[in-house]
Amino acid sequence: MRLPVIPVEGDEKWELLRKIIDKLETREAKKALARYKITPVNNAIKFLKIIILAMFFELEISYAVNEVNKRYELRKFLRIDGKVKLKSVYNFTSKFKAEQFINFVFSILNVNSKKRRKKLSLLILDWTDISLDLNPFRKRDLKNKPYKWGYSTKGFFLGMKMMILIDYKTLIPLFFHVYPANVHESRIYPPILEMLKRRGLIRFGDAIILDRGFYAYKNYLIGIRYGVVPLIIPREKFRLEKLKGMISYPLTVFNSKNVEKEKKRYRKLIKRLFEGLKKNLKSLRSIIEDVIKLGKEAYSMKQLHCYSFESVKKWCSTSVLLIGMTFEFGFREKKVIQKLSVW
Q1: Residue-by-residue DSSP string for 27-89
Q2: Are strands 207-210 and 229-232 parallel, antiparallel or unpaired?
Q3: Is residue 160 within 8 Å of residue 181, measured between CB atoms?
Q4: Is the dihedral of CA 321, 322, 327, 328 positive or negative?
Q5: Which of 145, 155, 219, 244 is the most buried (most CB within 10 A)?
Q6: Higher pLDDT, 77 or 307
Q7: Separation of alpha carbons 193 and 152, rounded Å
Q8: 270: closest CA among 225, 203, 238?
Q9: Residue 146 has what pLDDT?
């Protein structure tokens, strides 16, 4: 028997949901929806409330719609007038492209705001498995399927992977990318850096902490070439002297008008890399594991009932929105995040 969804006054989880609903109804959110052509805006907000309710309490969308239609107090909490048709919610999610949702999400989270990007940033880049609700024991021909077999620390899984970038100070997600589960992190690292640079999410001098999955001597060099400090957690056989012998100035330095000035910039970058590799990077990086766990355990990203890149990206973008809003409302301490994950 399923439990009824009834708003509880004073409950922390319901209060957080109330703040998220308030945010969705702001002028800023409405302008973002209109900008990315997710219209009609009022209907979009209504359907997003239903989807967020379902994700918040790990419900099927059909059950969430049924509860909203059945309970006046729930409609009052969500500020929804009248009953909602399940078909309308599904039509809404299929009508728009994933890129529109993603742009809307990062617009709401102010990812590219000038205020956020005044100083050099410490960022954390990591990946997680996106397991799909598929029978792993059934024989499948995956040749033309978007989902593949992958491997994580928990073992083999069937689905996709998601790369996520967060700001270490605010914990706000700045970027995510869904890709095939059978692609290793060290292979996708260069294209990810290219995406981040193209979108203006990394600037010269920013530092990025990455786990051992990205480890390779050449990946330190690639990071330097992109003008960032690639703090990849080294493996046991790593030798700093070997890395020092491999580093050289990127060829772009010699195309600049002031070569000496560019050389000086890169020398500072390399110095910060060598200093950073001596720090306890594992401890600094550990917070992203809590962020990912929050998305999986609290915001329904654990096992998805989606089977295409488009649908997975749409679902993940809403989870990322909820993660970002949670941190924007001040829930940033490690113990608080861990508590939210087991609500």
Answers
A1: HHHHHHHHHTT--SHHHHHHHHHHHHHHHHTT--HHHHHHHHHH-HHHHHHHT--S---HHHH
A2: parallel
A3: yes
A4: positive
A5: 219
A6: 77
A7: 22
A8: 225
A9: 87
